[in-house]
Design a protein that fits this description.
Layout: H1 20-54, H2 62-79, H3 83-86, H4 88-106, H5 112-140, H6 146-154, H7 156-175, H8 177-189, H9 191-198, H10 203-209, H11 214-224, H12 254-284, H13 289-317, H14 319-336, H15 345-371, H16 377-404, H17 409-429
Helix pairs in contact: 1-5, 1-6, 1-7, 1-8, 1-9, 2-5, 2-16, 4-5, 4-8, 4-9, 5-6, 5-15, 5-16, 6-13, 6-15, 7-8, 7-13, 12-13, 12-15, 12-16, 12-17, 13-14, 13-15, 14-15, 14-17, 15-16
Length: about 425
Amino acid sequence: MAGHALQTEPSLMHETKMSLLQYTTIFVCFMLNMLDGMDVLVISYSASSIAEEWSVSMAALGAVFSSGLVGMAFGAMFLAPIADNIGRKKMILACALIMGLSIYATSFATSVTHIVVLRLISGLGIGAMLASTTTLLSEYAAPRSKPLWVGIGLSGYPLGAFLTGLVAAQIIPAYGWRFIFEIAGIATLAMIPLILFFMSESLDYLIKKRPVGALDQMNRILRKMGQKTMNELPVLQTAVVKTSVRSLFSEVLRPQTILLWAGFFSAYATLYFLMSWIPKLAETTGLSKELAIYAGAVFNLGAVGGVAIHGYLAGKWGLRNVIFIFFLACALLMMVFGFFAGSIITLVLFTVIGFFLQGGFVGFYSVAAQLYPAEVRTTGVGWAIGAGRSGAVVGPYVGGILIGMDFSIGTNFMIFAIPCIIAGVIAKRISSVHVS
């Protein structure tokens, strides 16, 4: 049954302290997540310049943002699960190639249609990359400090988004929007050698799927980690689970899968509402345009600390407890936000909201990775992300309707504090069927 663990899972590689190979794998995943953050938000920083150059309305660029989200959802749901059959490393390589080429090609686009197609393609790679790196982080991190290392690895995403904003603010006015896409594409392609030479394949995958040469690959990894090699592959203690979405809805996993998807949906709805509307909403409170732009930047800057500290606290207080606390704290801050709107304290609140919201949000990735056995782990993580991304569409859309109805920023924040609380409660209710 899908919910049963194997006695031969990678606990054998975690009996001693973390090795250089494990640290290296986590570092490469961190760098890849930084590029994910860069590749996702580079279009947001370029949108105004593109609209001005081509004399199109910002509304006309809505399809560009939507195509990227659709691509990410499809990449997580349909491309990422292939990793459970071909291996995490091969999938990550393929994603880097897809992302790098499509993002670089965007610099040659001559119409909105071109960018829509290219953002759809790059979204496929981005969605599958995030699911695959999350899985590999979970498998290579030591059990006692797993939430910490997964959190550090995933903190690359908001850091990449923050740094890209700073770079784009300097490059686009001086060299044009096309140059930032060239940089992003080349930076992504430059990661391919690092993936090839410094990233190791998942031991979980080699044990469970047993591809040709699996024993040799395992022994090479074990030698690099300073551990004993094996004469033969371990005997599987349970039947091999067929990799499919249906397996996520087995009798054991079904209730947890539904809760996980609902939690991702709620968290995505609040997160993308804020990411989409913070600059606009900040400006309506009386902040200058410059400070309104910085509001979006500090939101992601706060997230970097939140993701890392969440991982540290989760190792001490329990992953689900910390997710609940972070989401509850975020909801409370959103509820009182209206009392401070218009003052410089607004920027501080955006930073702290980013800290708690994205810190708690990333915790769901760790929950997903712990929930599913190795045979369907990337499938489970990918489909949870893909299903949750519908919240990324609903949140900004509902927010736009509310803003159009002249709801104040305080009222909007109170409304979107509700799915934040729901996500926290769901995190408390999810139980670990499978433990790595």
